[in-house]
Amino acid sequence: MWPRGASLTIAAMNTQTSSSSALPSGQGSTSVLPRIAVLATGGTIAGAAADATNTSGYQAGVVGVDQLLDAVPALSTVARIAPEQIASVDSKDMAMALWTTLAQRINTLLASDDIDGVVVTHGTDTLEETAYLLHLTIKSDKPVVLTAAMRPASALSADGPLNLLNAVTVAAHSRSHGQGVLVAFNNRIHSARDVVKTSTYAVDAFQSPEIGALGWVQDGRVEFQRGVVRAHTLATEFVIGPNWPLVEIVVSYAGVSRSTVDALVAGGVRGIVVAGTGNGSIHASMQQALADAASQGVAVVRSSRVGSGHVMRNGAAPDDALGFISAGSLNPYKSRVLLMLALAAGGTGPVALQKVFDTY
Ligand code: SIN
Q1: Which of 70, 229, 258, 338 has its C-alpha lying 20 to 30 A from 271's C-alpha?
Q2: How far lies 104's CA from each of 100, 241, 347, in Å?
Q3: Residue ranges of the Asparaginase/glutaminase C-terminal domain (predicted)?
């Protein structure tokens, strides 16, 4: 089960002397290395192009987990790795059935005494959605760390190998316990709740707007500079299951009509997240359609298309009067994840659903 470095110890690793945070799992110098499952799902980190200078015209998700691990020999000094190929998808095609499979597999692995943490390799495009979904549905305080890459595995200066090493280093570290799901990317450690993709091409593609990263990882050192405040993992009411209520996202913009909202309601949507302008404001035509939807029992959540900041309840729209819910600081994509889970858990009505958004 442990094909890589199964009998290694950390006796010889790490020549740094300044902080115990350089040691994984807080173990002494003769301890057995932590056991970390690496679950591969595809993405650019597993992408390949025809030549090494091509960083945009490649196929995502074609390099297998064994090849990804073989590219990082230093992993054997950090952890014993248990690799699994869960999927091989471009994450633009992430589907809820795969979310169910992934979350259930992680819960099963973490329930075992044989596994100390999990790393998920993923595409960057929907990583923030998967990370938040896992943050709300994993039932363990053991570390779960997502990572990815902006350059394919075949590229000059591919960023995937170091991101993978750093993700395993974070997952193997004792201070990563109880922090919810983490994202290790470009030397930074982000909370799954906060992290968003902010660049289409740069290797520093992930940020936590307004509040910044939780910490950093470099050369085997892991440093957390703040904690995670909102409830997650063991403290949530959400259980991953096969049923996903239909929740869609609409965008408000100059001249938008009500037709998209009306079509969704006619199609049986259970919830609508609106990516509003500014502080979640909504064009009058669309707002009337959403008010009509809410009066028919559709859950309507106001978020913002801006990319940072928060949406104030009863700020840019009279939420109390229209039966809307404010997303607070969650972006539209994460709001959709939370609303699907809340509806699947039986949440109903704007008061109860607002409490969910105020809690998570
Ligand atoms: C993907 O999200 O699977 C492709 C893009 C990427 O990983 O950067």
Answers
A1: 229
A2: 6, 8, 22
A3: 247-357
